[in-house]
Amino acid sequence: MKKIKVYLQYPWKFPDSPYYKYLVDDPPEKIEYLNIQKQKGVIINKRFFWFSNFLKRNIRRFVNLFELSLPNAHLSPKRDYDLIHCCHCLSKNKDMPWIADIESEWQLYVGKKTKKVKNKIREILLKKNCKKIMPWTNATAREIIKEFPEIENKIEVVYPAIPLPKIKRKKHKGINLLFVARYFYEKGGVHALKVIDKLTKNHKNVNGIMVSEVPESIKQKYSKNERIKFYDLMPQKELFQEIMTISDVFIYPGYSDSFGFSFLESLSIGIPIVSIDSFNRKEIITNNKTGFIIKNYGIKWNKNIPILNKEDLMIEEMVRKTELLIKNKKLREKMSENCINEIKNGKFSIERRNRQLKKIYGGALR
Predict the structure, then answer these.
(1) 161 with 352: CB under 8 angstroms?
(2) Cβ contact 309:191 at 8 Å
(3) Residue 249 to residue 281: CA distance in whole angstroms
(4) For the chain, what are the domain ranges?
(5) Where are the alpha helices (DSSP H) in the chain?
(6) Which of 57, 110, 271, 317 is deepest in the core (most CB within 10 A)?
């Protein structure tokens, strides 16, 4: 098999997902990716992160203001490549075969989901040079098939993958509960902090670590609890080596996640997860094996702040499940082993993803 040149087409100027960093760092055999120079993973630089969000937010405002409705499709430049891999978007190219990975069905649209734009997207998806649509999860696959049942034969779920980090967990005193998120409110930081605060007060050997852009008012509210440490966003290498290697349980509601790479990163380090049931959560966390999935008590939104109908019940359940891991070292160690195995040999392994992608790329060119 000769080397296949694959052009990565992004929807934004700055690709902001670890999916593509892990893809280009560990490509399938005999696959060469083009347009990779900007792949640095998620943005954690405060100024650049603010600018990226500012840009995206204002583009959406402009689209909504003028009630625009467009397919999220882009034209790739003519270069020496064999295939286009669209990243969270579709292709406008007419003379090149292309495939697309999709995290969530809403990524097919720019602006409102109207009947007219839906028909335009259907036309794009039904074209012969659209070879494969690769949802990240079965939950997303069901969403797309519901909207576009005509292309069910083009759908193939390809789970994201990450490598096992070349670091070992560090010995440390006590048990550390961790929350990591760039978006504090949307990812459930308020509720994670309440759970961690309660557990650090109930158990002398428990500490909390919060890595996020936590508002100063909230830091002040918990300032008397010396067992909770707050950190700003940091580079992934530092996060892995200094924070995650000493963490024992990942407390992460993740309300706004359509996937959530922090789940995979926790699994790769061997950190069991306590999270809330939503969208595709049961595809990522195996309940009672790699963590605990708590009942979803009904989430409402006030701007970007999630509000639960039965907040106290949810927090109490998260506390109870986390306490099982705090009190039972053998359970904690077994779940940690299961987490690592899911990345090494399971659905999120690099080997499995690459084997599947290589077959898809080859099939798209036949």
Answers:
(1) yes
(2) no
(3) 17
(4) 4-161+349-364, 175-344
(5) 18-25, 46-65, 115-126, 138-147, 189-202, 216-221, 236-238, 261-269, 281-284, 311-327, 329-344, 350-364
(6) 271
Single-letter amino acid code for the residue at 78: K
User: Three-state SS for 230?
Assistant: strand
CA 294 to each of CA 161, 208, 253, 273, 333: distance values in angstroms, whole numbers, following the listed order: 24, 20, 9, 11, 21
Q: Compute the distance between CA of residue 31 and CA of residue 15 in angstroms, rounded to an integer.
A: 20
As a whole number of angstroms, the distance between CA 68 and CA 55 comes to 17
The structure tokens listed for 118 are 């839906």
Taking each continuous run of H as one helix and of E as one strand, the counts in the chain are 12, 17
* Cα(286)–Cα(276) distance, integer angstroms: 12
Asked whether 200 and 225 are in contact (CB, 8 A), the reply is: yes
Distances (CA, A) of 185 to 231, 304, 350: 16, 7, 31
What's the one-letter identity of residue 175?
I
How many beta carbons lie within 10 A of that of residue 92, not counting itself? 14
Evaluate if residue 52 carries a pLDDT over 60.
Answer: no
Cα(203)–Cα(321) distance, rounded to whole angstroms? 14
The residue with tokens 């020496």 is 80
Q: What tokens were used for 201?
A: 């007060």
Q: For the segment 14-29, what is each residue's pLDDT rounded down to a tens digit?
A: 566 889 999 999 999 9
Please give the Cα distance from 189 to 221 (Å, whole number): 14
Question: Would you state the CATH architecture of domain 4-161+349-364?
Answer: 3-Layer(aba) Sandwich (3.40)
The two tokens of residue 129 are 């040079």
Each residue's pLDDT tens digit, 174-207:
999 999 998 899 999 999 999 999 999 999 999 9
Strand partners, 283: none
d(CA 291, CA 269): 13
Indicate the fold that domain 175-344 takes in CATH.
Answer: Rossmann fold (3.40.50)
Domains 4-161+349-364 and 175-344 share a fold: yes
Helix 329-344 vs helix 311-327: angle between axes, to the nearest 10 degrees?
100
Query: Which range among 36-50, 144-158, 229-243, 304-318 shows the weakest confidence by mean pLDDT?
Result: 36-50
